[in-house]
Design brief:
mainly alpha, sigma factor activity, sigma factor, DNA binding
Amino acid sequence: MLTGGGSQSAIVQDLYLAHQGWLQGWLRKKLGCAFEAADLMHDTFIRVLSGQDAGQIREPRAYLTTVAHGLMVNHLRRKELERAYLQALALLPEPETQGPETRALVLETLMEIDALLDGLPPKVRRAFLLSQLEGCTHAEIAADLGVSVSSVRQYLTRAVRQCLSLLL
């Protein structure tokens, strides 16, 4: 447990001074980019500052690594989603290309959908996306996934329940 003996911000400041160097190095090794590592290192400490009582952290490095890893996974997921979106846009004819504001809104919507489907098993996510984005029939989805049509129905029900539970 940290014993900064002060306010949350003073404890996090002590934590930052003691651990920011190795955390940024750890992130740089994982990401291969010093700039992204610096951004995520700062985001990690902001998350700690706004989170639980920092004075209760017993294993600072393990705690910071866990927080940073979660942020890194979200960061990489967002980059992959953005890359796929930009790749799809590049295939569109010139008159159908979108302005920067529209792109940002679409990307934000895609991130929200991704967050709604987060935690679902891969086959459930794929079945939902094939149904909603590709307009595939249950039989087509079943063939694509190598499962029965009744499994597809169960997957879609589960995905819709997940979305509704998070929206309510």
